[in-house]
Amino acid sequence: xxxxxDKALVARGEEAIDALAAGRFDDPFSLLGPHRGRDGRVVVRxxxxxxxxxxxxxxxxxxxxxxxxxRHPSGxxxxxxxxxxxxxxxxxxxxxxxxxxxxxxxxxxYQFGRVISDFDLHLFGEGxxxxxxxxxxxxxxxxGGTRGVHFAVWAPNAxxxxxxxDFNGWDGRVHVLRRxxxxxxxxxxxxxxxxxxxxKFEIRTPQGHLLEKADPFAFACEVPPRSASIVHVLGTYDxxxxxxxxxxxxxxxxxxQAMAIYEVHLGSWKRKPGDGQASFLSYRELAADLVPYVxxxxxxxxxxxxVMEHPFLGSWGYQVLGFYAPTSRYGSPDEFKYFVDTCHxxxxxxxLDWVPGHFPKDEHGLARFDGTALFxxxxxxxxxxQDWGTLIFNYGRNEIRNFLLxxxxxxxxxxxxxxxxxxxxxxxxxxxxxxxxxxxxxxxxGGRENLEAVSFLQQLNRLTxxxxxxxxxxxxxxxxxxxxxxxVHLGGLGFxxxxxxxxxxxxxxxxxxxPVHRRWAHNELTFSMLYAFTENFILPFSHxxxxxxxxxxxxxxxxxxxxxxxxxxxxxxxxxxxxxxxLLFMGSEFGQWREWNVETSLDWHLMTExxxxxxxxxxxxxxxxxxxxxxxxxxxxxxxxxxxIDCSDNENSVISFLRRGANPxxxxxxxxxxxxxxxxxxxxxxxxxxxxxxxxxxxxxxxxGSDVGNAGGCDADPVEQxxxxxxxxxxxxxxxxxIFAPEPQ
Length: 745
Hints:
By secondary structure, the chain is an alpha+beta fold.
């Protein structure tokens, strides 16, 4: 026997209410909020499973309170508002009496219309919404005089999405989001919430499983190991770095500027007494302590290992889940802005390590976000880093590209960051990266290049340089991929800089050899100049070189403590003389003995020892000479800025070279003796006559050396040497570097 239309409608309504009560209903606006009933009257329906009683405070039309009838034992309540002619004109608030005795009055989320426009969804679907973080995530706003939080998330394959938090007892049935077909975005405005609320998204997968996920666009997160997102309002911080930003834009061409970078992990640079979270310095404490330290050392930039929220401290920040949130381990988002602001006011740029290459598998994170492979590739041959146990972003999907591109711009815009160092670029560029035959899928041309990742990186660099003039990008890229730091319009990837991993490997391998054997490996000292101008290189002595058994910068060098320190002082001088920008990891500037340990502070007590104080002092002086000498940075990427005086004296393990500025008469002379043997009457050619002042001698007593040298300088003799008409007759100290500058004629 078939049902009448009226009975069928009632049956469908009962089924919907049952599904709502069971948490299976995905269209809440068709059932909850104000509707016209079958008899033409306006009915309001709410779902409060924890309520003892619910009533409506009607404010228009008229003002009165209506008791609501329990429509379903699970907590569906209903009331007819007879005086309302149309659901859209009704204005009311919901008064909920909970079993605990608490009474709460709030506006009804299901009386508000949609917030995200079709145009926003169109741009997101194209991958071109540069401020998608203004639309997705959690945003405090006022709609029609009612203040609350708008939640939105992209989960196209979910069967139901809810927002859960303290405000609804973490019950996913209470605040089910509206599905915006066909974009895959879900949204809901929840009235009467403010910043500071904890929340997650509860997602019912196509398989019927329930997942609790942190918000991919959250601006703040709980302190790990807690994993909830926190509602945070951007744009409230009062910046004081306008002069810095204007100067950055005016300078624009960073290639011709001095850049000496101090690489830092904020949680282990220095710690307070205590355990765990209590031992970390806050962003404000770091602004008061780290910033003056870096300024006094003479560095131009701080590069931070990833500060984006990450669940595992032992990943050093490189397994990011909260891409839009600075880690809460050290304070709030505004306190991190204060740290950046303080850097800028002290003349220090801030670079962030950024990790678009992979993400971890934590259950509350991006992995299988809506029950399907959404952010990652489904096939593990494309979607998983087997070495790291992490997942790889699907760069061919527009929404994923948009998520990452907008994130890069977010840090430059909202946090005034001066540049991004992109981690593990090689792993992005090659489909067969660290894979054996049969473990990877070729591109559409049969090659191993990840064409989608190449396109993504090119778009990243175009956007950051266009939207934020004067900002930089640097690639940690260790292969021979051509044109990493060449413009996109010339076929390059478009990075401003590329880390010179080859130089770093060669010079550390050479320096770790016993001096008696160095004559046989002289090419390791000089080979880098064959390719030094093929890219815009940064010379990195980074965190990766002082972990995992590689030993610290000081301890990896041969000899006794004096010889190790002497070699390190010379090694740093070679870095400052070699073409390319400079980078030094924290602790290396004073010669820490231990490898870096993310769980503990640097060994600051070593600064009481003359050996370590001397290493720090030579770094200070190198930075001072570097910043005052245009010949050391103006032509870093022009062959005219460097020339060998003599690169062939392998028998003595000595090299000498010139650095020149834009003014060809502006030059410095470098001489380095990589043996512990002092060398007297060592003659090198120089470009002009006159007195050459000794700017630096790393063997000076003030640095902990033996004080062998040239009494502050040397007059050039009219003796031909190395193709020059003039030459200097020098004393070369053991395991030491000398820098000379010609006195003005």
